[in-house]
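forwarding from the other thread:

> can someone predict this with pyridoxal-5'-phosphate?

sure thing
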Amino acid sequence: STFPQQRDNEIFSLISQEAHRQEFGIELIASENFTSPQVMEAQGSVLTNKYAEGLPGKRYYGGCEVVDEVETLAIERAKKLFGAAWANVQPHSGAQANAAVFLSFLNPGDKILGFDLSHGGHLSHGSPVNFSGKYFQAFFYGVEKETGLIDWDKVEATAAKEKPRLIICGASAYSRDWDYARLRAIADQVGAILLADISHPSALIAKGLLNNPMQHCHIVTTTTHKTLRGPRGGLIMMGNDFENPFGFKTLKGDLKTMSACLDGAVFPGTQGGPLEHVIAAKAIAFGEALTPTFEAYAKQVQSNAQAMAKAFLAKGYDIISGGTDNHLMLIDLRPKGLTGKLAENTLIKSDITINKNMVPFDDKSPFVTSGMRVGTAAMTTRGLKETEMEQIVDLVDRALMNHENETVLAQVKTEVNQWMKQFPLYL
Ligand code: PLP
């Protein structure tokens, strides 16, 4: 071959540094996880070389016999895992999956109703800096100041007032479960399509640990790389054959018609060729998620989050809504006299990674923020359990309470690095 003989040490030494960072640090970013070696092997495979525009059996390129089988397996496994009637495994990311939904069923200028970004929603649900907020007229619901919970009556009132074409539920930083049946009733009242973006808690939903949107929401999207523990990517599903509830003149609401719209909105609507190496990795992750071992993992993620929330509360931290039902929690740091930015920058000195996050009714900018978001998906993959969650909270608290003391921060870092050796990951 004409491949270079020389190894690209510049890049590989950086990859090795990153492996080291992941192996010896504490990872609490709620949207991250560690994939299995098999997932990474598939992603680094020859499938990256293959163009396969179209769908299995209906491609615009020759030589797709093998990748057709790979993609079909990914689709079948996704359907089995979530109890879906239809799935498209091609979206390159969660935002791409949502983009395909918008392109399928909305016209520019249509009204959409989503969960407020500053209360825990996602950019792709109508934020003015995202295409979803630029091309559509976005309205938002949020949480109550006193409880930190979404008030479904208020969602209903906003939907009745604005009459959105699409209602989006799902979040990036909401620690409570969703009432999909109630949301569907609200959507039906105003003739809206209901989209559930389950990117964050998808593994917990797949394993029956949280309410399942599949029978209530017309469309379900998710990323594949958060609690689901697959490669970075997106997935779109439908659970049901729906009657035409939307009053569309040109579109029937049934599964066949809607899924055809969605397929077309992914390719050629918003993407070119699918990433078959990533799709193979998704298939592996879905296969792993169908095992009893993964069920135990998902349960542990949830128990660990509850143990972590309890430990934070015991140390006087203010968790929005007072606790968690899923894998994450959002902490208001104002009572501790800290900002999210300071917390993030302090903890990284001790090799503990979190992200700063706006809290509902935040008085600081998104670059500073009053909160931090933490989750248990990644550390549970390493094998940590409830008692270790208490130890993590001790380390986090020790670092934060000594944010001006570099000696303590260095001590905590040494402890973190030593401790993580007991839970080997890849090295
Ligand atoms: N939807 C939700 C609820 C998310 O939390 C995220 C990512 O954080 C996304 C969509 C976007 O996913 P991606 O980063 O893969 O585009």
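The chain is about 45% helix and 15% strand. thats all i got for now
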